[in-house]
Amino acid sequence: QVQLVESGGGLVQAGGSLRLSCVASGSELNVNFMTMFWYRQPPGKQREWVATITGGSATNYLDSVKGRFTISRDKAERTTYLQMNSLKPEDTAVYYCSTNRGSTEYWGQGTQVTVSS
In whole angstroms, what is the distance from residue 31 CA to residue 64 CA? Predict the structure, then answer.
């Protein structure tokens, strides 16, 4: 079992920055080797993938956030981060972290990010 708790969302002006955190806990001993994902769900839209970091710290990003967002992880703290710079109003969404073990998916409760123009 893995529990994920996100934090760090808030209201920011366009051009600003936020850092989201996702802390993993639970009985899964290998969480630091698991691939972690950030997703987001804009208001009235479907959830979309934003970024991935593997157990080996390889990363991948949605095209629209490349060069602005950075995903990273601190294995000692079992925490995955999403540093978001140069935020745009279209980045407004609920942001979720996620991971999986085989066919079992784990999701956090989400954290709201609102970017004002």
Answer: 28
